[in-house]
């Protein structure tokens, strides 16, 4: 098949970008012709080891989306003009890329469009009244309202475009059961659960040689672009609680903070207020080699988002033999059972995070058993090959997204 993939941006190294690139790479290895379409690409900052092997068509090169002010509708209309007219299928990896379906028509009679929902479906998706009222509240006075009228017109146009584009979507795919229910409730459509992949094959020696021994200081690792839903403040507070209980820990948080500088600054202020400067390190960017070293050198992996995420880094941590503490509302929680594969806690609960880490460091035999069981549980589901095969099945009209790879 000739497969197109549409994505908002490929100018940072994030989990969302890795999913797109790895899926493209795997589909190509399976013999399919793959073309990625994006608004912005930076081949030096978005997984350069992978991205330069793939065929990518972009509106902007080396100019990150964050530096531009534009209408998603207008930009994806421009991008649609560049899309190959002979595609057999297209996978749309975010809400904004849906706009393309209003401006693209394939020459193939059996063309299929799959919306791969990479985060939570917005609870007010398509609800123009709610969006309109929220925008009106942002205006201060009549003058502000008058100057903001073009933005209100654009809001109406973009909302109408998204709702129209949904009619051209043949299949909606999600990463977890929770999002499947959101699609049913908000969009009134069925969705197929398609568990995503992860780099499970990168850490065989790390996992095999992992030793759970008593340490003078335990190293906590968390990975993810800094957005408020990441709830890193809960990890900061948990670190503080552990130190107060005389459990020595150092925490490393890896994630780009360019997209939400204000949030990063609130975290830094929190760290300083609690006197944790020597115990919490923020790394904005690391190479693939340094990332592997961090997995290798850590003792616990923590991923405590408040929704919005599949959790690709969690799967990699499991593959590296690390015990993982996760919240119960992320996608990968579908596959990791509390007490059997992971330590699963409610969102916004630093006390529970600290308690879980205490259990990990104090009961090393149980921790070792749980980490082994976690990897055995996901190894035949969360691989790039399995993910690609499930996506191909959807593109061919099947609904077997949840089936493990055979």
How far is the first residue's CA from the last residue's CA?
22 Å
The residue ranges in which pLDDT falls below 50 over 5 or more consecutive positions are: 400-404
Helix content: 25-40%
Q: State the helix count.
A: 15
Shape label:
globular
Alpha-beta classification: alpha/beta
User: Could you tell me the number of beta strands?
Assistant: 13
How much of the sequence lies in strands comes to 15-25%
The radius of gyration is 22 Å
Query: Biggest sheet: strands, sense, closure?
Result: 7 strands, parallel
Mean pLDDT: 91
**Helix-strand topology string:** EHEHEHEEHHHEHEHEHEHEHEHEEHHH
Strand order of the largest sheet: 3-2-1-4-5-6-7
Report what the structure shows.
With 406 residues, the protein is α/β, with parallel strands linked by helices. It is built from 15 helices and 13 strands. It has a 7-stranded parallel sheet. The protein has a 6-stranded parallel sheet with strand order 10-9-8-11-12-13, with helices on both faces. Strand 11 (300-303), helix 12 and strand 12 form a beta-alpha-beta unit. Helix 4 (128-137) runs antiparallel to helix 6. It is globular.
């Amino acid at each position: 098949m000739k497969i197109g993939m549409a994505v908002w941006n490929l100018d940072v190294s994030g989990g969302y970008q890795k999913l797109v690139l790895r899926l493209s790479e795997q589909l190509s290895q399976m013999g399919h012709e793959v073309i990625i379409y994006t608004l912005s690409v930076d081949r030096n900052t978005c997984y350069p080891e992978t991205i330069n092997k793939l065929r990518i068509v972009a509106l902007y090169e080396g100019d990150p989306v964050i530096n531009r002010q534009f209408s998603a509708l207008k930009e994806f209309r421009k991008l649609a003009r560049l899309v190959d007219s002979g595609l057999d299928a297209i996978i749309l990896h975010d809400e904004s890329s849906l706009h393309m379906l209003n401006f693209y028509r394939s020459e193939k009679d059996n063309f299929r469009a799959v919306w791969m929902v990479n985060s939570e479906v917005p609870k007010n998706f398509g609800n123009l009244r709610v969006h309109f009222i929220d925008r009106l509240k942002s205006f201060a006075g009549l003058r502000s309202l008058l100057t903001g009228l073009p933005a209100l017109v654009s809001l109406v146009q973009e909302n109408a475009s998204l709702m129209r584009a949904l009619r051209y979507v043949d299949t909606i795919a999600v990463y977890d059961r929770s999002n499947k229910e959101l699609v049913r409730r908000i969009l009134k459509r069925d969705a197929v659960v398609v568990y995503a992949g992860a780099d499970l094959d990168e850490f065989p020696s790390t996992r095999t040689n992992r030793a759970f021994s008593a340490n003078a200081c335990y190293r906590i690792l968390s990975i993810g672009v800094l957005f408020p839903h990441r709830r890193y403040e809960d990890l900061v507070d948990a670190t503080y609680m552990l130190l107060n209980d005389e459990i020595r820990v150092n925490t490393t948080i890896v994630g780009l903070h360019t997209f939400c500088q204000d949030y990063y600054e609130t975290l830094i202020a929190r760290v300083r207020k609690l006197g944790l400067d020597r115990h919490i390190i923020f790394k904005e960017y690391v190479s693939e080699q340094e990332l592997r070293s961090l997995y290798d050198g850590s003792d616990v992996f923590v991923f405590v988002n408040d929704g919005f995420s599949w959790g690709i880094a969690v799967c990699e941590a499991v593959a590296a033999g690390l015990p993982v503490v996760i919240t119960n509302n992320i996608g990968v929680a579908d596959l990791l059972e509390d007490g059997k594969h992971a330590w699963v806690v409610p969102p916004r609960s630093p006390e529970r995070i600290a308690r879980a880490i205490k259990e990990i460091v104090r009961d090393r035999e149980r921790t070792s058993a749980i980490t082994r069981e976690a990897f055995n549980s996901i190894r035949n589901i969360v691989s790039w090959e399995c993910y690609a095969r499930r996506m191909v099945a959807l593109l061919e009209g099947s609904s077997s997204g949840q089936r493990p790879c055979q």
